[in-house]
Amino acid sequence: MTILVTGSAGMLGTDVLAVLKGRGHTALGVDIRASDRMLDITDPTAVSAAFHEIRPDAVVHCAAYTNVDGAETDTDIAYRLNALGTWSIAQACRRYGVRLCYVSTDYVFDGTKRQPYHEFDVPHPINAYGETKLAGERAACTACPDTRIVRTAWLYGLNGRAFPGVIIRAAREGRPLRVVADQVGSPTFTVDLAETIADVLDAPHGTYHCTNAGQTSWYEFARHAVQFANMDPSVVEPIRTRDWPSAACRPRYSVMTSLMCPSVGLSAMRPWENALASYVAAYCDECTDNASR
Ligand SMILES: NC(=O)c1ccc[n+]([C@@H]2O[C@H](COP(=O)([O-])OP(=O)(O)OC[C@H]3O[C@@H](n4cnc5c(N)ncnc54)[C@H](OP(=O)(O)O)[C@@H]3O)[C@@H](O)[C@H]2O)c1
User: Whose CA is nearest to atom 18 of ligand 1?
Assistant: First the structure.
């Protein structure tokens, strides 16, 4: 298949592009930053021209405004990108008969549930970012019925500023590490998610919850990252959300489960601890390579 990946210079988009190419697809990346091709997804004329030229069979739509705190003040910009930009991609998908996969977030939920959220739970975002991503889900499904929504959470990868990398670097530099212990979610490695997204493209349209298995707090996540990098995890100190003021409210509990994935034969992703161990090994290798250059 010929597959267009939006946001291909970003953390997830980079891995999606690599996984699709590895599976033998013709995968083409578009991004506002340097990529195979420069494309602003908020420009419907440019989007239409790109579809006309590339004639994709499928689109994985990763481009987004992803600054959760920034969205509280840049709300219009976030809507323009996450809702209007998604609508413009979805419109083009319908016009050209292309299947769409839109990447969404656990932040569409309010975090008041005490069991994992499944695909049929009613979204209720508590921050502007979550509202704009939910608007993007609705815009995608309205404009293009052949849409798969992939909701994921707490992403980290090797091609962006990722939480475990930041923690490991800070621990190495002996900086104090105070990490929130009362928000619980499912950290997800972008390489694993990219493999699942490649599978979802062949699944029927609908909403899919896709995260690494299990749940943890940011604090435990940080401790594991430090430990896997062969340092003493006791350097990480637990704090409460109210001790770390930020512009956006975040759900206290945003663990997701999937009713849809098993029903269409999609395999569960591996436990988050195993995925984090793979990330830390690759991250530490990269640091050693950079140091020896
Ligand atoms: N990160 C997470 O924890 C997380 C969790 C759940 C869901 N998600 C979702 O997963 C997807 C990928 O996230 P990510 O963390 O990989 O994001 P990311 O690294 O910020 O990548 C997004 C890419 O889109 C680009 N972009 C911004 N505006 C654009 C435009 N107008 N046209 C084309 N490209 C544009 C960005 O460029 P600039 O960097 O120059 O703006 C960036 O390269 C997003 O849909 C996000 O909402 C992320």
Answer: 10
Pocket test for ligand 1, best of 16, 36, 62, 66 (most atoms within 8 A of CB): 66
- Domain limits of the chain? 2-160+187-215+256-270
pTM of the entire predicted model:
0.97
The amino acid sitting at 76 is: D
Per-residue pLDDT of the chain (293 residues; tens, 9 = 90+): 999 999 999 999 999 999 999 999 999 999 998 777 999 999 999 999 999 999 999 999 999 999 999 999 999 999 999 999 999 999 999 999 999 999 999 999 999 999 999 999 999 999 999 999 999 999 999 999 999 999 999 999 999 999 999 999 999 999 989 999 999 999 999 999 999 999 999 999 999 999 999 999 999 999 999 999 999 999 999 999 999 989 999 999 999 999 999 999 999 999 999 999 999 999 988 887 776 66
User: Rounded to whole angstroms, how far apart are CA atoms 196 and 62?
Assistant: 14
CATH superfamily of 2-160+187-215+256-270: NAD(P)-binding Rossmann-like Domain (3.40.50.720)
Secondary structure class of 150 (helix, strand, coil) = strand
Crossing angle for the helix pair 218-228 and 163-172, to the nearest 10 degrees: 60
